[in-house]
Amino acid sequence: MSAVINENLAPQTLVSLRNLNKHYGDFTAVDNISLDIQDGEFLTFLGSSGSGKSTTLSMLAGFETPSSGEILVSGKSLVNVPPHKRDIGMVFQRYSLFPHLDVRDNIAFPLGIRKQSADEQKRKVDAMLKLVQLEQFAHRRPAQMSGGQQQRVAIARALVYEPRILLMDEPLGALDKKLREDLQDELRHLHRRLGITIVYVTHDQEEAMRLSQRIAIFSHGKIVGLGTGYDLYQNPPNAFVASFLGNSNFLRAKAAGHAAVQFEEQSLAITPTGNLQSGQDVLLMLRPEKAQVLLPEQAQQTPLPAGWNEISVQVSEVVFLGESLTCSVITKGGTRLTLKSLSGSQQPLQAGAHARVRWAASDACLYDTWNESDLKVHH
Ligand code: ADP
Ligand code: MG
Question: Which residue has the CA at smallest separation from atom 8 of ligand 1?
Answer without folding.
Answer: 50
